[in-house]
Amino acid sequence: KVKTDDTQWRSGSATSFQASGGALPGVIFIPFFVVILLLLYVAALNSLWLLHPGPLAEWSAGTMAEAGALHVFLVLGVWSYAGTCLTPPGFADDDCVQKWMRDVRWRTTGGRYCSQCDAPKPARVHHCRHSGRCVLRLDHFCIFANTPTGAANHKHFLLWQLYQSLAAAEMARLCFCGLAVAVDQTQQRSSSGLSG
After folding, report:
1. 140-142/133-136 β-pairing
2. Quick one: which H or E segment has residue 142?
3. Is 134 marked active-site?
4. Could you tell me which residues come within 8 angstroms of residue 111 by beta carbon, excluding any fewer than 6 positions away?
């Protein structure tokens, strides 16, 4: 049972993951996620140019809106992802969380203690086995962000999911439309080759 501070946990030098019996799960998924996102982005841009050939200056306002929406969703998604990863989740032993719990009049109910941290456990505080610490309003440990989702970073996590979903929907729409245009052009070329 190793209790570490937040800076050691973030840098990975404290090995609180190993102390809690786990490994560093999110380190593998972050590069994988980045590669998949970049591939989808390139495919969506290729589809956009396939749907609207010609120089960028000749694109219509609707096409520019499509491209702009895709980029806005991607930028906001990356911003929210960074907020999810870099905002501490609200560890129960942080001073600001302790102050917040006093201000809201949260108190330890019935003498509850965390068996892993050996510390008082107020209401709505749960122990995260991956980080080895108690988190206020722990939702889950996100392996893609490599951090617990708690009271302090839950908003960032939900916004990340929203913008990621909107960007994925826009990229899928562009890719399917581009695929339909490519199939149509291929069929036209093959039919004109047969008749000529």
Report:
1. unpaired
2. strand 140-142
3. no
4. none
| Mean per-residue pLDDT of the chain | 75
Q: List the alpha helices (DSSP H) in the chain.
A: 6-11, 16-19, 26-51, 61-86, 95-103, 154-195
d(CA 92, CA 122): 8
pLDDT of res. 154: 92
d(CA 187, CA 196): 14
- Give the pTM: 0.69
Catalytic residue among 85, 128, 134, 142: 142
**At 11, phi and psi to the nearest 5?**
-80, -20
Stated length of the chain: 196
What is the rounded CA–CA span in Å between residue 66 and residue 62? 6
The rounded distance, in Å, linking the Cα atoms of 184 and 169 is 22
Return the pLDDT at 72: 92
Cβ atoms < 10 Å from Cβ of 175: 17
The CA distance from 36 to 92, in Å, is: 35
3-state secondary structure of 98: helix
- CB of 127 closer than 8 Å to CB of 66: no
